[in-house]
Amino acid sequence: MTFTAEQTTNHYVPQDLPTHIQHYINGQFVDSLNGATFDVLDPVSNTNYATAAAGQKEDIDLAVAAAREAFTKGPWPRMKPRERARVLNRIADAVEAQEARLAELETFDTGLPITQAKGQALRAAENFRFFADLIVAQFDDAMKVPGAQINYVNRKPIGVAGLITPWNTPFMLESWKLAPALATGNTVVLKPAEFTPLSASLWATIFKDAGLPDGVFNLVNGLGEDAGDALVKHPDVPLISFTGETTTGQTIFRNAAANLKGLSMELGGKSPCVVFADADLDAAIDSALFGVFSLNGERCTAGSRILVERAIYDEFCEKYAARAKNIVVGDPHDPKTEVGALVHPEHYAKVASYVEVGKTEGRLLAGGGRPATSPKATTSHPPCSPTSPRRADLPGGNLRSRRRDHPVRERRRGAGSGEQHPIRPGGLHLDPEPDPRAQLLAERRSRHGLAEQPQRPRPPHPVRRRQSLRPGPRRRLPLHRLLHRPAGRPHQPRHRSHPKFGA
Ligand SMILES: NC(=O)c1ccc[n+]([C@@H]2O[C@H](COP(=O)([O-])OP(=O)(O)OC[C@H]3O[C@@H](n4cnc5c(N)ncnc54)[C@H](O)[C@@H]3O)[C@@H](O)[C@H]2O)c1
User: Fold this and answer.
1) Does 353 or 458 have the greater pLDDT score?
2) Rounded to whole angstroms, how far apart are CA atoms 485 and 469?
């Protein structure tokens, strides 16, 4: 790992940082009714740079009342899709125009490397454009049942949507929820993550300037157990969209059950990267490094279990470790930095504890400690790459208890091996895999993991031939992929465009 002295001393602090972050209810910035606040940390210096209003049940009640009023009496749910789409496109324009400011705030608040924070505004804007297009293209429908009846499909907004978001790429993730909820004419109460409340306050001004009526968007900061819990249990909130930890999702499911709320859940991952012996090794290493170290490794889709076919395992580990050692850990605002500061000391402690578990189970190939030149207070943390002589573990129990989820593993290790594995929901593991095809199939049946990265050469397969736009059932590529890749252009694997970590 490299970490320059210059990076530690010249920590960049954006201009005009707020020292206090408020709620936004019915078009006004306000504090909590009881004046409660919580401290907000800068993850590089680990010092408090602001306080944020800590929402309680009564603040959620106010926000929901405003959203309910805007829904039952305001113009937003009654506007034609084209009118709402115009507002959404203005929101997208305003988000794009804030690209530089958003990136510096997001980097300061979350510790994400600035080069990786830079694309977030464009992705957020794209979400609004996508749903603006979608709502004008959607239509209601009527179906005649001959001689009996006519059935109608009427698309209508439902009411107040409660949106609860995590701390990784917070602004962009909020846009995933805000854009569809608003596009379809609902009103919202957003409860952002308490570790990273800074960028969410940008939404208020963006929405107001774009012409969103007051009360349609409301924001309540606060802790999950207070503000989040009150939002989930509120009887006037029929929809909850949540992204975060699986265990929090389970709590929310239970709490929403009494009112049979509509739920959308995006929960934590523990995703596999399966490397086949016939893969392009350098490309597979690029992709595996990007998969687990981009966004500081704090991504739900991180490929934190790397399963390598036995024939290339040693070579893969050696090359992978060499690249991991070169990864630049540093101040998140330095464009050279590849891994910045973990979001919060609590999260740092959690990651560090998994490094310790990894050391007891395997050989540490690279990283695993704080850079020597890093000030004591920073949470910057180099990645750890232990290779485990045993199996990687998954959240949810030991190997025996996973029997139904992982039949291939069970068969390979033998039910009588007697090995017990502790619950280990974090860290990065490299494991030799005798049969990656079987493993990939097992992963697909598993309830763990959010994304899958199979690393193998692209076969000269029939899909590309189908792009000759032959009509009929053999053309299986999604339409947008057919339309967006110019005819005759050779396919470029996605990982080629990833930044090369530690190169
Ligand atoms: N699947 C996805 O698309 C996706 C995307 C990003 C992050 N994640 C996951 O999110 C996690 C990181 O986020 P986190 O640590 O902020 O998760 P978290 O579950 O601790 O918190 C997420 C949000 O829920 C709130 N919350 C906590 N307890 C609550 C409760 N009882 N009732 C209502 N709200 C409550 C928090 O205040 C926060 O706003 C990781 O596990 C990551 O994998 C998943």
Assistant:
1) 353
2) 12
The C-alpha atoms of residue 132 and residue 442 are separated, in whole angstroms, by: 39
How far, in Å, are 60, 68, 159, 216 from residue 73 at the CA level? Answer: 20, 8, 11, 11
124-174 per-position pLDDT tens digit: 999 999 999 999 999 999 999 999 999 999 999 999 999 999 999 999 999
Domain 11-140+157-267 shares a fold with domain 272-471: no
Q: Is the CB of 193 under 6 A from ligand 1?
A: yes
**Confidence grade of residue 493 (pLDDT, cut at 50, 70, 90):** very low
- CA–centroid distance, 394 to ligand 1, in Å, is 19
Nearest CA-CA partner of 123 in 92, 94, 101: 92
Please give, one letter per residue, the 3-state secondary structure of 208-252.
HHHCCCCCCEEECCCCHHHHHHHHHHCCCCCEEEEEECHHHHHHH
The set of residues, in sequence order, having a beta carbon less than 8 Å from that of 462 and lying 6+ positions away, is none
CA of 228 to the centre of ligand 1 (A): 10
Distance CA 66, CA 238 (A): 15
pLDDT in the model for residue 269: 75
Residue with CA closest to ligand 1 atom 10 = 244
Distance 240 CA to ligand 1 centre (A): 13
Residue nearest to atom 6 of ligand 1 (CA): 300
300 assigned to active site? yes
- CA 170/CA 197 separation, integer angstroms: 8
Bridge partners, residue 30, by sequence: 23
Please tell me if the CB atom of residue 191 comes closer than 6 angstroms to any atom of ligand 1.
Answer: yes
Distance in Å, CA 263 to ligand 1 centroid: 14
Which residue matches tokens 């970590």?
A: 501
**Which numbered atom of ligand 1 lies nearest the CA of 267?**
1
CATH of domain 11-140+157-267: 3.40.605.10
| In the chain, where the domains are located | 11-140+157-267, 272-471
Nearest CA to ligand 1 atom 26: 224
Catalytic residue among 300, 338, 384, 433: 300
Contact, 382 vs 321, CB < 8 A?
Answer: no
Say whether 384 is catalytic: no
Confidence check: pLDDT of 22 > 70: yes
pTM: 0.82
Task: Tell me which of 168, 229, 231 to substitute to probe ligand 1's pocket, judged by most ligand atoms within 8 Å of the beta carbon.
Answer: 168
Token duo for residue 266: 């995006």
Check the CA dihedral 29-34-38-39 and report its sign.
positive
- What is the pLDDT of the chain when averaged over all its residues? 80
Which whole number is the average pLDDT over 295-301?
89
| Structure tokens, 48 | 């408090």
What's residue 494's pLDDT? 45
CATH code: domain 272-471 is 3.40.309.10
